[in-house]
Amino acid sequence: MTKxxxxxxxxxxxxxxxxxxxxxxxxxxxNRFADATGDHQWIHVDIDRAEREIGGTIAHxxxxxxxxxxxxxxxxxxxxxxxxxxxxxxxxxFTSPVPxxxxxxxxxxxxxxxxxGSGTLLAIDCQMELEGSERPALVAEQLVHVxxxx
Length: 150
Hints:
Oligomer: single chain
Order of helices and strands: EEEHHHHEEEEE
Radius of gyration: 17 Å
Number of helices: 4
Number of strands: 8
Shape: elongated
Structural class: alpha+beta
């Protein structure tokens, strides 16, 4: 975890914020995501067909993307700023499929910290590593709006 003050955010530009623990994306997680989103495409949930046609089921790209919130949130603590809002993404690319049972982890680096309204807009480079693969599962640039306060 990287700990800083609101004023210290600009000093972190270019710094690695952290690397998460490995998380297993198992079939149960994939099925729950399919149920939550209504995306029951066979490559995600039909184990028999996926085994025959592509070697096994794969995680939804948006499931992998959604893990940024879970894995990235603890990486940066701004001690004097309790208000941090997800502002969106500048880009997101699914660069490698994630087979059911695979493990991923998030690596984050602060790309920029620019004034925005009453706060600072952070651009955070996110790379979701896929265990055993040279290619990441996902690369994205996350935007987070940090608002100073007590």
